[in-house]
Please model this.
Amino acid sequence: MTSNGAARQISQYRLDNGLRLITAPAATGQVAAVNLWYGVGSRHEVPGRTGFAHLFEHLMFEGSGNVPKGEHFKVIEALGGELNASTSSDRTNYYETVPEPALDLALWLEADRLATLRDGVTQEVLDNQRDVVKNERRQRYDNQPYGTAFERILAHAYPEGHPYHHPTIGSMADLDAADLDYVLSFHKAHYGPDNLVLTVVSSLEPEDVRERVARYFGGIPARETVATAPDASLEGPIGSKSLVVEEQVPAPAVFVVHRVPPYGTREFDVMNLASAVLGQGQGSRLYRRLVVERGLANDDGGASSDLFDFRYTQSLFFISMIARDGVSGEELETAVFEETAALADGIGEDELERARAVLERDHFQSISTPAGLANTLSSYTQLFDDPELVYTWPERWASITADEVVDYAKRLLTPENRFSLRYEVATSEAAEKAEA
Amino acid sequence: MSSLQPRPALGEPVRYTFPKPTRIKVGSGTVVAVDLPGQPYAAVRLIHPAGAINEAHEHMGVAILVGESLEDGVDGNSSLAPALERYGAEWVGRVGWDSFITGVDAPARRLKDAVSLLAEAVRTPALRSDDIVRRRDQLVERFRLENSVASTLASRAVGSQLFTGRYAVPPSGGDVYQQRLTPEIARSFHADNIASVAGTLVIVGDLTGVNLEELGAAVFGDAAPTPQRHTAAPGAAPGERPRIVILDRPGSVQSAFVLAHRAPARSEVDLPRVEGMSDVLGGMFTSRLNLELREKHGYTYGVGSRFDLRRDSGVFVISTQVNAPTTAHSITVTLEQIAELQRKGVTESELQAVRESHTLGLPVAYASAGRMAWALIEMVVYDLPEDHVDRMRAGYEQLTAEDLNRSAREHLHPDDAVVVVAGDAASLRGPLEEIGFGPVSVQDPDTLWG
Model:
């Protein structure tokens, strides 16, 4: 095994067709991590077409002009490579980590589906992957205790018609309605090199990687028309909303969100620290107070709070906890509200320092593998046009003071800016009761 | 029009050689280390042979309870994680059938501090009664919560359908055995099996300037040498086989099913032949089962198969979640695919995929400190030579189609299998009886480990 021991060597290029390429050295040898972020996600979907960006992600593995159905997976797997893709509101991400001698092949496979996917998609493939995605929805949402929480949260935290009102999985009805013509137009609208950040983490020289990427992607023209996303602007608080759902769940559970500023803003960073103080790690307030001291919530290891990081609209400060035996959902909900509100009463320097350490650890762990580094580089380039953030991001938390966190907690973590979703164990026919 | 390049040939493969670990004796323990210059995070793991299989029958689940209780740290009251967080480190704990693993992932530059905290946490934890009871009660409740997930429920029930003895109960002891444990039992297990036993310390990361002997001494102290563990093959559960057991989950829109049968112990099989065969059947995305159930029929989001090979026995499992109305046909398709593999054998392209993925793909498989550490743990737990990975690579390079075909005939036993289905019994029972696999029974999940 070889290792170059290099760090902080990021190179950036832009091809004539608009493709942005990022390269960086890997800390382990003989591998190439290839990561592609396309600037298309479920925020580009319109009512009646939900779930399409994600369904489309599946179709990208089902054959293109020069690659038969199933071949992409087959080739990479046979090399012992690892590959997959994911879709969020803000982007669609494709990635593979391969032995370095297979880099050209991986790039060619990606280039082929970018340039010629529309030659390979058939009705049969669409029908099959529609069924697969419907099963994915059943597995992750409909047949899972609390599985519909995220969908309900988005539906209440963002107004009807807003591009973040629905989850990436989409609705069964919309999936059924997807047609081949729309598949083709979606690819044409969103999949162009000008909408792509491609990152390669390897031990190859940056110029070498650039030449290879230019060879395979350089001849693919930019989109003729740049697609625009629906307006995602949003101001003001959520309002004071709550929903109680009775379902066949094993215990009552509480999910709470507050709207906070978009990912990338200083305000978001402040709330990220607030989230870590409140509910990240076993040293966090929710863990110590509600799990250890009061015994109200199930032990989640200290993972009860986080942020949904949306770049192009207001993000969400998110809390979730499941009640212990004998604890009512209402009691847990009240306790969560109290602990959240208590952030406005002040936080200690030691708490802030712990929160910084937790966030920094998570950041550096995420970039400690070739695939993780490639993904983070793609992310910062696609969302902020600045791959160097990968090494400077933790500095953002250093200058944030406890007073600043308290100040924003007072302004944002309020009942007027809150949606609370409570699951109760169904005692009869499942019923929903909306309050307020 | 775009101008595309022709498909490139694969570059010249570079042979991967697993790094030879540094191995030093420190006191009664052993340090096994791999230096990865430039790797920003180090993986540290301490291995004790105190897995769930070694528990006394009346104390089932104590290993996992102790593993969780260590997170309360030397001051109790969940003090370990906050202490590690100050160093940018994170606790790692995993109790399996054959091993008790503790450890930390830490920035390479903070390795010494993190190892010191690991040593304290493992050797001199507070283990206060209040903390142990809290952890125990949380484990009991978590077990029930997790059983509400169909796939977890089906997987957990497999042991009770195949084995008697310890393997009939999940590693955690489930809710029934777990709630019988007392703080005294937990402290006794810790004193006898963890605190007083040196174990083996695995360290992978940038070791520039790291004194391994010093780290080993901090962790091992004056603990005693690690004892040899002896286990015996478990007995088979009673009941007709093959059979189908439905764990009733009324209203489920999907069924989670696991087809499982017993398999030999790890040391009794040729791993490349056995695992390579499983890869063809269900171990890869491009496996036969995934191509049939997902890509052809659209019944599932994914399906997998694997051998879970332990020191004294093993299990072969195929597991998936399918759209409820397709449950019976999914099982039929699964059985057909097993029969087809046994009858006709693998194709040349499947052989090549297995061979190359386990040889060319090794740099990917070991592309992080954490993954390399788990490979070293496997070597320690199962007494494998330190060139185990290279031997496996050689085994895959020499693999033939006949090797895989023979393995399919010898190691797949659908006639001796049990299919556990977590789903809606009212709608499933009739169709499952019609496929004629074997008798179909319905069980209330709450009675499984009572």
